[in-house]
């Protein structure tokens, strides 16, 4: 995947109408670069916006483990983990 696509992949999850497509794009990007923290963060964000909290938590944990805590990851991770029943 070319570098230019990173911006597209990481920005799309903020538009609600594009969430399913954004999720698919991020998954494709992760297939090429599975340790990319920005992609993992975007996947977690897309899952969170879709109400898929367990999946969001998993992706965001990986993002934090892979690249350190980013502001969005830590906020969403904290929110999602407090909402998910264990």
Structural write-up:
The chain has 86 residues and is mostly helical. The protein has one domain (4-83): Serine Threonine Protein Phosphatase 5, Tetratricopeptide repeat (Alpha Horseshoe), CATH 1.25.40.10. Helices cover 73% and strands 0% of the residues. The longest helix is centred in the C-terminal third of the chain and has 15 residues, at 53-67. It starts with a helix and ends with a helix.
Number of domains: 1
Reported CATH architecture: Alpha Horseshoe
- Rounded mean pLDDT is 75
CATH homolog superfamily: Tetratricopeptide repeat domain
Spell the H/E element sequence.
Answer: HHHHH
Estimated radius of gyration: 12 Å
Question: How are the elements arranged and paired?
Answer:
Blueprint: H1 4-11, H2 19-32, H3 37-49, H4 53-67, H5 71-83
Helix pairs in contact: 1-3, 2-3, 3-4, 3-5, 4-5
Relevant terms:
86 residues; mainly alpha; Serine Threonine Protein Phosphatase 5, Tetratricopeptide repeat; 5 helices; 0% strand; globular; disordered N terminus
Short description:
This protein has helices at 4-11, 19-32, 37-49, 53-67, 71-83. The protein is mostly helical and 86 residues long. Helix 1 (4-11) packs parallel to helix 3, helix 3 packs across helix 5 (71-83) and helix 4 runs antiparallel to helix 5.
């Amino acid at each position: 995947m070319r570098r230019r696509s990173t911006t597209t992949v990481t920005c799309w999850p903020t538009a609600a109408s594009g969430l399913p497509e954004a999720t698919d794009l991020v998954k494709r990007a992760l297939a090429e670069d599975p340790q990319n923290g920005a992609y993992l963060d975007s996947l977690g964000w897309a899952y969170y916006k879709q109400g898929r909290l367990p999946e969001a938590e998993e992706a965001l944990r990986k993002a934090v483990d892979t690249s350190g805590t980013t502001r969005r990851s830590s906020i969403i991770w904290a929110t999602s983990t407090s909402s998910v029943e264990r």
